[in-house]
Amino acid sequence: MSIYTSFLESKKANQKLFGVLIDPDKVTHEVLYKRIEQANKAGVDYFLVGGSLLIDNRLANSIELIKKNSDIPVVIFPGDNMQINNRADAILLLSLISGRNPEMLIGKHVIAAPHLKNSSLEILPTGYMLIESGNNTTALYMSHSLPIPADKYDIASCTAMAGEMLGLKIIYMDAGSGAQNPISSEMIKEVSENVAAPLIIGGGIRTPEKAVESCKAGADLIVVGNAIEKDDSFIVKMADAIHAV
Ligand code: 1GP
Fold first, then answer.
1. Ligand 1 contacts CB of residue 51 (under 6 A)
2. Distance 235 CA to ligand 1 centre (A)
3. Distance, CA of 121 to CA of 107 (rounded, Å)
4. If you average pLDDT over every residue of the chain, what do you get?
């Protein structure tokens, strides 16, 4: 079954999902190995691998290590068109619909398209929305774009609706990695009520309580990176909380 089909089925069954974000630059081989073990134990649904700015060339090695030690599907969460790797299962083809930078809306995609066509990756066309979060995140800076203001729920839902009408199959609302403030439940609720596409929520989620609150508001998949980087046992707690919603 394709990743998208299983994502849709989980949404239909109201089964909430948990994705662990791996930034290859931030993990050593040993740390990543430990994290994979925890994720296997916790029944994590997806690994998302990538970053807005990768300095060390470790994307391929990280994906390889995960594939060797886990059956959890690996989805590339690319910061740019260089982050393509055939060992992964799928890639979020992100169009940054919250911004007005043509490179992030379509430019990078044109460059990536022939490589993606030759790859075995499942392509997941995703409307990516950066939401203002109290601090300037790497994603924001690197994308040369303005985020959607945190209290403008109508802008967020109209943007998501437009993305869905354009044919994007997933909406990813992101406060950015390390965000001071995660996305509010009010905004998640407003967006989820206006689009049928599965909704990914991430950025600054540090507690199982916040993850559960986001799921109840309408998130289908919660992505956590930073909070896990500080405490590995956290993966099990987070997965249990999300899967129990
Ligand atoms: C960022 O949504 C992800 O793109 C995860 O953010 O690292 O803050 O959990 P955190």
1. no
2. 14
3. 20
4. 95
CATH architecture of 3-243: Alpha-Beta Barrel (3.20)
Q: What are the sequence ranges of the domains in the chain?
A: 3-243
Q: What are 183-201's pLDDT values in tens digits?
A: 999 999 999 999 999 999 9
The pTM score is 0.97
Q: Which two tokens stand for residue 127?
A: 């409307």
Torsion 153-182-178-28 (CA) sign: negative
- DSSP, residue by residue, 211-242: HHHHHHHT-SEEEE-HHHHH-TTHHHHHHHHH
Our answer on whether the CB atom of 137 is closer than 6 Å to any ligand 1 atom is no
For ligand 1, say whether the CB of 203 is within 6 Å of any of its atoms. Answer: yes
Report which residue type is found at 196: A
